Amino acid sequence: MNYRVFENYTEVFGCSDFNLRDTLLCGQCFRFSENPDGSFKGVAFGRELVLAQKSDSIVFYCDEKDFSDIWVNYFDLGQDYGEIKAELSALHPVLKEAARFAPGIRILRQEPFEALISFIISQNNNIKRISGIVERLCSLCGDQIKEGVFAFPRVDALAKLSSEDLAPIRAGFRAKYIVDAAQKVKSGELNLKSLESLEYDEAKKQLMKIKGVGPKVADCVLLYGLHRTEGFPMDVWMKRAMEKLFTGVSPSDFGKYAGIAQQYIFHYARLHPELFKEE
DNA sequence: ACCCAGGAAATTC
DNA sequence: GAATTTCATGGG
Question: Which of A184, A204, A216, A244 is catalytic?
Answer without folding.
Answer: A216
